[in-house]
Amino acid sequence: MVDVQNTEATDREPRGGIQASVVVGLSPGAQRYLDQTRPWVRFMSVVCYISAAFMALVGIGMMFASLAGGLGAGAGSDAVGGAIAGLALGVTYIPMALLYVIAGRYLGRYAGAIRLLRTNLDARTLEAALGHQKSFWKFTGIVTIVAFACCVLLFAVVAIVGVAAAMAARG
């Protein structure tokens, strides 16, 4: 439970926000939960950065391997097609790595705000921590919706291409 103690009516901003002078009283349980959450949030932030680095390296490696293997001297059209597919797949890893960097950044900010809240119990610090957490979950939700939509679209394209190929083979 968050207990906001407002000592003066002038501590309110015009749009209803709370100024930094308002003291926030967290229950010992709430503070304990935040303290126990912070190391895990920091850990997941670091995992996001490490995952992003690996994804970028794999993407770059796939691009170079595709270029070196498929576009070499005397490569046939199948090899060139495979190289283009490998190159395209490698290129998609780079934006995916960027998504991990963004998620890691939100989590790192949230962990930092929780640490700051330990020593600075004001409403702005609490709002900042909750704002960073909200941003992470909003970003994650949007990425999930986009990924789900891409999967549905890919399924539809594969189904249409499959039906068209079957009809052409019969025809």
List the helices and strands and how they pair.
Blueprint: E1 2-5, E2 23-26, H1 28-70, H2 77-119, H3 123-170
Antiparallel strand pairs: 1-2
Q: What would a concise description of this structure say?
A:
This protein is mostly helical.
Question: Would you kindly provide a written description of the structure presented here, covering whatever features stand out?
Answer:
The chain is mainly alpha-helical and 171 residues long. It has three helices and two strands. A two-stranded antiparallel sheet has the order 1-2. Helix 1 (28-70) runs antiparallel to helix 2 (77-119) and helix 2 packs antiparallel against helix 3 (123-170). The longest helix is centred in the last third of the chain and has 48 residues, at 123-170. The radius of gyration is 25 Å and the shape is elongated.
List the defining traits of the structure above.
two-stranded antiparallel sheet; 171 residues; disordered N terminus; single chain; elongated; 78% helix; mainly alpha
Give the percentage of residues in beta strands.
under 5%
Write out the strand line-up for the largest beta sheet, numbering strands in chain order: 1-2
Give the N-terminus to C-terminus distance in angstroms.
70 Å
Structural class: mainly alpha
Radius of gyration: 25 Å
**What's the total helix number?**
3
Q: Unreliable stretches, pLDDT < 50, 5 or more residues?
A: 1-16
The topology string of helices and strands comes to EEHHH
Number of strands: 2
Report helical residue fraction.
Answer: over 70%
Apparent shape = elongated
Q: Give the rounded overall mean pLDDT.
A: 84
Sheet with the most strands?
2 strands, antiparallel
